Amino acid sequence: MSPKTLIILNKKIKNLFNTRIGTGRGGMVIGSNQRLSFTGFWVLIVILSYSNGVAESQVVRGIFVFGDSLVDVGNNNYLSSIAKSNYYPYGVDFEYGPTGRFSNGKTFVDFIGKIMGLPYPLAFADPNTNGARLLGGVDYASAAAGILDETGQHYGQRYTLSQQVLNFESTLNQLRGIMGASNLTNYLSKSIAIMVFGSNDYINNYLMPSIYSSSFYYNPSQYANLLLNHYARQLLALYSVGLRKFFLAGIGPLGCIPNQRGSGQAPPGRCVDYVNQILGPFNEGLRSLVDQLNKRPGAMFVYGNTYGAVGDILNNPATFGFNVVDRACCGIGRNQGQITCLPFAMPCFNRNQYVFWDAFHPTEAVNAILARRAIYGSSADCYPINMLNMTLH
């Protein structure tokens, strides 16, 4: 499929999937959405997967994933950590069962890879992730990881952002041996780095004053600047070793996750507005950082408006086929969010109608929507362009 054909296809997709969202900083985001049906979505995947599409034209050579439990595909299985999900009912709807994915099924990056014609991302820590298997990309994400090294330390071992960058550099050494330096440069220029960070720096650091002191030293704006400065340094490190295309996911409305609703800090049926409000400086700063980073030669950084996309689902659940937005499908306590999904717990049966799978993570159905909006969405979803257009640059 030629770039020209992809552009035409993108226009057709936009006609099918016409999205408009708001960008509030409070507990909910006001917006409207005219959605592509799930049937239409899967037809679209089939078109892309079986019509000499993205994979055969090699518009995207590989996907390299950096982040936390939202996109961890099993790295924490190999670490001494209590943040693990390699047990039932995690993976109840995934073809390979429990793999360490914090979902009932596919993650956000699983859907991204599938749409782009690439295999499921491989966990860096898996001993079998080596040789030619590296060519489709590698996932370095680790549950409880944050931008700051100390974030999530009460869970035990995890690959922090800085460690994930070092792990990527070790992968580069293997790739250089496989394809040589010049071919590696071309390969990296046609690959995409997906970055999903920040949530733990709030829920497993700033909002835990009994364990972490960050909220005593920094107000929300100062803390956001601290995170963004650390983040920018690591992004530049990845750019310096050859990556050129980056998708930077913003933080979703954490005040609406079952873990926060179950804290009792908000009235029944409401999100914790304070938690959502303090995320504004980070998300706005990350969007501005994209403008600065895009001034570098050959760079293409994209900001993903996760806050707006999830907020749109929470505000208009029926539009997307959901009817349960305030509690987890699997969990214990208030909003099924005070204790997360335990081994062999019985999850809800109507999982596609739930926004949240457990205390912290969305269901596979939500991940599918977020991936679709990242690839095909309007400028309100992705700034300055969506992922499909990024592949054409």
Please tally the β strands and state the result. 11
Percent of sequence in beta strands: 5-15%
Structural class: alpha/beta
Unreliable sequence segments: 1-9, 12-58
Q: Terminal Cα separation, in Å?
A: 15 Å
Please report the number of helical segments.
Answer: 15
- Helicity range of the residues? 25-40%
Write up this protein.
The protein has 393 residues and is of the alpha/beta class. It has helices at 3-16, 38-50, 54-57, 108-115, 161-179, 181-189, 199-206, 214-217, 220-240, 258-261, 273-278, 280-293, 306-315, 364-376, 387-391; strands at residues 18-20, 32-34, 63-67, 122-123, 138-139, 192-196, 245-249, 300-304, 324-328, 354-356, 382-383. The strands form four sheets. It has a five-stranded mixed beta sheet with strand order 3-6-7-8-11. It has a two-stranded antiparallel sheet with strand order 1-2. The two termini are 15 Å apart. 50% of the residues are buried.
Please describe the topology of this protein.
Elements: H1 3-16, E1 18-20, E2 32-34, H2 38-50, H3 54-57, E3 63-67, H4 108-115, E4 122-123, E5 138-139, H5 161-179, H6 181-189, E6 192-196, H7 199-206, H8 214-217, H9 220-240, E7 245-249, H10 258-261, H11 273-278, H12 280-293, E8 300-304, H13 306-315, E9 324-328, E10 354-356, H14 364-376, E11 382-383, H15 387-391
Parallel strand pairs: 3-6, 4-5, 6-7, 7-8, 9-10
Antiparallel strand pairs: 1-2, 8-11
Helix pairs in contact: 4-14, 5-6, 5-9, 9-12
